Amino acid sequence: MLTSIAQKEFISTLRDRRFVGLSLLVLGLLLAATLVGRRGYAALQQERAAAQHTVNEQFAHQPGRHPHRVAHYGSFAFRPKSGLSFLDVGIDSFTGAAVYLEAHQQNSVNFSPAQQAGSLIRFGELTVAFVLQALVPLLIIFLCFSAFTEERETGTLRLLLSQGATMRQIAWGKIRGYSQAVALVVGPALGLAAALLFAAGSPARGLDLGLRLGLFGLGYAAYFFVVIVGAVVVSARQQHARSALVLLLGCWMLGCVILPKITANLGAHFYPATTKAQLDAEVHAETQRGIDGHNPHDAHVAAITAALLRKYHVASEKELPVSVNGIVMAEGEAYSSRVYQAHFAALNRTYARQNALADWAGWLNPYQAIRPLSMGLVGSDFAHYVHFQQAAEAYRYQLVQRLNGLQTRMGYGDKERRLGAATWQNIAPFAYQAPPVGWALPALLGPALALLAWVIGLSWLGLKLVERTPL
User: How many CB atoms lie within 10 A of CB 417?
Assistant: First the structure.
């Protein structure tokens, strides 16, 4: 009986011209978003790779210089795009693409695409994720809102019950048939994404990205299942199709537009973030209490010099086998780095608290459960951005301290000396390696459990309500 009901709903859906028209529109948007997103990803990836190669070449082919001057010359680290980011850009449009690596200062990641775009970018971009999260649920609503009301109005519901079918079986049959119809719309787009991902010559290969794509599809399958079950339950509980449609559209507006905005505003209110001006002022004030390697009269410099004289049993700085300036620069860099790290860590914790509030909202709203799950699986969420930020800072610190080490070994009078151009070619350039999916999964456990709770809870409670629905 259940299979027959599912087959009937599936065939009836395919014969519905309204559904066919809407499906073709959504499918066209999905395919367009996939192709345009992939093209934009390839262009950005090529630009950033070329920019990274250029700055690496410029750094390696510097003329003979003093190491500390090279440390101030610095370099750039460009964040490569995730191989699946063409499906969901996440926060990539707002977080920046490059960071300047220099001595004594940890810079933020700048040059975000939003800085060069108009104000309309605040309303979102046409991506696969946007279509899947917002437009496909609309398609499901228009598909399912009359699932039971039409049967009730035409009298076929009583006929089905008289043949031995239960309300639960009818509901499951309709859910199964509608799920097959939705799969026909979404499946081609995800298949195209997989083909583009593993196409010959594609940079996005490997088991890791394949696993990410599989979990991405599984997550959206659960999300669509929740929407289908919810729409069928609402249709069963309403006497008229019009009231069911109005209620479902209200739920869509509440879940996809109103609640996310409210949650974001509440997060910013309860956990306000420090502004860049405040952060710079606090860091500057704290670093002033540390070692100033550019001030020969600094008390810390005098203490370090005295300690070195005792260590090497010499009477003057000229007799030291090492450069006091190099050691002072290394000590100052270590101190300023700790200051920057502490302040950036505090700022990141504030953003993490804001995001956690949105993650908890996923237990009340399935849209806010699939959204962080989608971004995390494709590598365009806040956690992946922080991973790049920390990798860039680790390289910056290692680079500056290596240059300070070169200066230290130059000995007394290093300011009048230079190192050959070949020295810079022996320093490894910045190369970022994105974390594997196993690194991302623990942070996505909350949204995944929330979505699973929606699947189980709505299936159990919703079908209970359907069983108790009066004819």
Answer: 13
Element holding 221 (H helix, E strand): helix 207-237
Mode of pairing for the β-strands spanning 98-102 and 75-78: antiparallel
Helix or strand (DSSP H, E) at 212: helix 207-237
Q: Residue 204: is its pLDDT beyond 50?
A: no
In a 10 Å sphere around its CB, with 0-12 CB exposed, 13-18 middle and 19+ buried, how is residue 435 labelled?
middle
Distance CA 392, CA 188 (A): 38
pLDDT tens-place string over residues 115-137:
555 554 555 578 999 999 999 99
Domain that holds residue 83: 2-467
pLDDT in tens, 407-465: 999 988 888 889 988 999 999 999 999 999 999 999 999 999 999 999 999 999 988 88
CA distance 434 to 79: 10
DSSP-assigned states of every residue in 296-333: TT-HHHHHHHHHHHHHHT-SSGGG-SS-HHHHHHHHHH
Structural domain count, the chain? 1
Residue type at position 26: V
